[in-house]
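#struct-queue
[09:14] JT: dropping the first one here, sequence first, then the C-alpha cells:
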Amino acid sequence: MADLVPEYLTFDYSCQFRGVPGARHDPEGYPVSWTVTVKGTVWDEEDDGGDGAEVTVGDARLYLVPDAGIIDLFLTLDAVDQELANVGEMLSLKRPDLIEDMALGGDLLIVSSLWIEPKFRGNRLGHAILKAILCTVGRSAVTVILQASPILADGDPEEGTPEHEAARAALRRYWERFGFQPASGDYLVLDHMADVLD
C-alpha cells in the first residue's frame, strides 16, 4: 500500500462521563475520560482513482480535568487509578508551579497513551494526531501532561536495558520537537498551546 495521506485521517471521539462536570462532582468521576480512534485512507499504486481502503492508524486515551487549578487535584487524580495518582503526585509535590499556572481557570489534559500502528510510524503522524486532539478535546486546556516512556509489549526490551533506555530517549526527543518540556522524571509538559496550534 502507498503512504497514508494525513489529510484523510478520520477521528472517532468517545467520551465516558457520569453526570455533569463540575467542581462538586465525586473526585473519582471528575476527570472526563476520552478515547480517540484514528483511521485513514490509503490507496494502492494500482488503485487508479478508486476509493482507497480504510485502515486503522492508531488510538489515544486521555483525561480532561476541568478547572484543574481550583480543585484538589491530587485527591481527584488519586481517586481514579494509580496512573493518574502518579500524575497528581508529580504535579502536587514536584511541580506545584504547574498547578499555580492553572489557578485562574483552564483545564488539564493528561495524555495517557497515544499509539500509532508501526507501519505508519516515522513521519510524525503522532504530532498530527495530538494537534487534532488539542484542537478538539483540548481546546480549553492550559496544560498538557504526558509520560514519555515506551509501553512494554511482548518481545520489547525490558525496562532498564540499553535498548529500552534508547527508546525512552527517542520518545522524549520526539515529543520535545512537538513543544513539550521536561516536567519531572519521564513526565513532559506542554503549557504554551498557542505556539503549537498556529
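[09:21] JT: and here's the second one, same format:
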Amino acid sequence: MIDSDVFVQALQDMGVNFFTGVPDSILGGIIEELMTRKVYTPAVREDEAVAMAAGAYMAGKIPAVLMQNSGLGTSLNALISLNMMYRQPCILLVSWRGFQGNDAPEHLVMGETMLPLLDTMKIPHRTLSEQTMADDFRWMGQTFMKQRVPLALVIKKGIVKGLHP
C-alpha cells in the first residue's frame, strides 16, 4: 500500500501545485494529506472542480482534480467542451468505485463502464498500482506536457492508504 504522504509528495515533486476535488472515501487519505499541507481547495461538484482546474492552469498552475468515477459523468461537458477543446490539461485522480462489482449498487454501472468511457472521451488513462507507481507518474508527466489534454490516474480501493484501515 502506498502511503498518502508519499503519493502527495510524488505529485508535488512532478510540479502539481493546484489540488481540488470532491470528497470520496477511497481518496480520503490523499485529501487529508493535501488539507494538512494546506494545498487543497474543495469543490461542490466535479464539473466545478474541472473548471477551477482550468482556471488554475490558465494562471500557470499544474492542476489535479480528485473525484470518484461517478464524477466523470458529472464532469463530461466541462472536460469535453473546455479541457479537450482548448487543450487545457489536468490530472484526474479518479477512484474506481464499483471495481469488479464490489461496492454499493449505485457504483456498479460506472465501475463496469469507466475505462471504456475514458477511451470514448479520448482521455488517456492508467490504473495505479504500488509496483507501477514510478512508471505511472512518469507517464503522467510526459502525457501532461506532450498531449495537453486531461489524463486520468485510476485508483482502486486499498492502493493508496485511506483514512480508515
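[09:30] RK: nice, looked through the second one.
[09:31] RK: The first helix runs from residue 4 to 13.
[09:31] JT: good to know. The radius of gyration is 14 Å.
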